[in-house]
Amino acid sequence: MTSPRRAPGGFPVVGIIGGGQLARMCAGPAAELGVTLSVLAEADDASAALVVPSSPVGDHTEAEEVHAFAQHCDVVTFDHEHVPPHVLDLLVAEGVELHPHPAALRFAQDKLAMRERLTGLGVPCPRWVRTDTAADVTAFGDAVGWPVVAKTPRGGYDGKGVRVVADAGELTAWLERAASEGSGLLLEERVSFRRELAVLVARSPSGQAAAWPVVETVQTDGICTEVIAPAPGLDAGLSADAVHAALRVAGELDVTGVLAVELFEVEAVDGRASFVVNELAMRPHNSGHWSMDGAVTGQFEQHLRAVLDLPLGSPRPHDRWTVMANVLGGELPDLYPAYRHVMARDPEAKVHMYGKGVRPGRKIGHVNISGDDLADLRERAAHAAGYIQGVVTE
Amino acid sequence: MTSPRRAPGGFPVVGIIGGGQLARMCAGPAAELGVTLSVLAEADDASAALVVPSSPVGDHTEAEEVHAFAQHCDVVTFDHEHVPPHVLDLLVAEGVELHPHPAALRFAQDKLAMRERLTGLGVPCPRWVRTDTAADVTAFGDAVGWPVVAKTPRGGYDGKGVRVVADAGELTAWLERAASEGSGLLLEERVSFRRELAVLVARSPSGQAAAWPVVETVQTDGICTEVIAPAPGLDAGLSADAVHAALRVAGELDVTGVLAVELFEVEAVDGRASFVVNELAMRPHNSGHWSMDGAVTGQFEQHLRAVLDLPLGSPRPHDRWTVMANVLGGELPDLYPAYRHVMARDPEAKVHMYGKGVRPGRKIGHVNISGDDLADLRERAAHAAGYIQGVVTE
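Predict the joint structure of the above. Result:
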């Protein structure tokens, strides 16, 4: 595997395992910062491989391939959570500087471990239990109320690995697989939430941390489709509590890089606005895409700064509101004419495309728009994203 | 020459002749827009070649090499003005879509042609003359007052190719060379200016145009060291006149892409605040680096949109003021510790490094800082740039 070409002046090389859009969106900030990227890509036409000169193709589940890749990097970080523990363990044993460290990453890879740890820290969670049998499922559902939410501890994303079930019989196949893998299933109460929120923070190995404002996220069919930054009308106490919880989780788990904490805003408890934690991600996250255009320091730049233990940048928003709308793949394979139309309609729309082929429902881009009039921004962002997708036609 | 890997969805390839920092700074916006870049680089470690996967090495003065490069691109644009006319002519004859077109680019390549054309358009210029002999020089200097400014019509940049002379004898060598090349020299009166300004506009082949606010530029030893956006205390009439002149020049000369018009602000004439045009550049320009962080659409994104005939983006500034300070090479070859220090001192500083080796006086990066307090921003930007350069040590 050839080494990436280093810039002169002592600037480091950051390796990213995985060549998806999150790695791709690090490319601009890396070029600006002057640091070199290298990406271990799934294929030579992976989203990031199209824009990063050093993008060897390799399998992130093969320890030797990942280790060979890491030899040429000063630090190594991740585009996704799917690198298996045995690969991470080998890298650590060989002295590779991984951010986040596997001891932290574990809590983003394994939802049972996450629930156990957060509960131990006193961070509000939905009621949950580890289950191995249909009898456990029935007992939990009878206790917290049906339906309940079942999650595979590992491997889920964008709604995959999550099911809402009305009785234990719906989980027969999952329970059999969990039993054969010895993994158990995570059961959670189905939270009656007002809305979904997310807090993004970044933390460096030195312990410096920075938080962006709490955002509101809107999911459609389990996929994030819209983010409003900051979350409109958010109770100031809830905002402070949420940021505090995210910074505390980052510190207690020794997270390095960007940490996304997805929350449900729930009914006030004793008059105090409240939340429970839904999920954790230890990498740049869809809920932070707004920051690329809406903040002094975007999440991809901040992630690079954090994993390099560089001082963190200001997360100050540029505008009162920024709205992000995801562009999902639709029926149109030829996106360029629609993209052109969107730019003509709205000179303030920041259209980001990921260089990915269209498949229905696949995240292929997003649009950010900033300004003062939230209702107007939401309409414009949704229109732009929907037009490129092909579901809005005028 | 291998072709760049195209993104799916119908997105085009933009070729850039020259691999300097201007081409490099297109890389982030291109990745965000989803368009593919290809760079004809001077060397495989050129500034842009470090961050653009398709960066064949070639000689921009060799018509066949440039033509082979252009075959793989939908449009071709420039990092510099140094592609010779015979090369441009071949490309046009072969049907390559060049932006700007050579018929426009000529006025940025040849300062005598520029003075003649602008004067024809009635755009204010310093008094000037084409000179071929020492007698011409003496006559001009005696008429407008000594010293005068002598410029080689072609090939100058960053103060090179420009001399301030007190008598014709100082130009003997230049006149001999100009005579042998048949090029003549440009002589201009030395303008007594209040300050230097610049207007950046972008124009697309369809004729759409957009202008950023007029900025103040500060030169040190002929090299731009600081830019203040917008120019503080600028007379509103002068601002409107300057933007109008730049848009008119762009239209009349059929410029496509970014056009930078450098101005001298001079004493008011009949009570009307006034300027004369100093130079033109038809590409992203140092006076527009502030827009990367300070405006909704930065100049590199806008240049790509313009040359692709995509609708232009909003040039709206994010903040009241943005100050840009250039980082010049100093005596420190190892920049990274100083860069780190600068980030720690100022979380709002946007530090851009070009991946270039240090040579004293070479432009190797820049720093942008935005906010409300101009004096404070200027101090901080100058400190950051000076610290990395090594001329500020505390």
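Chain A is about 30% helix and 25% strand.
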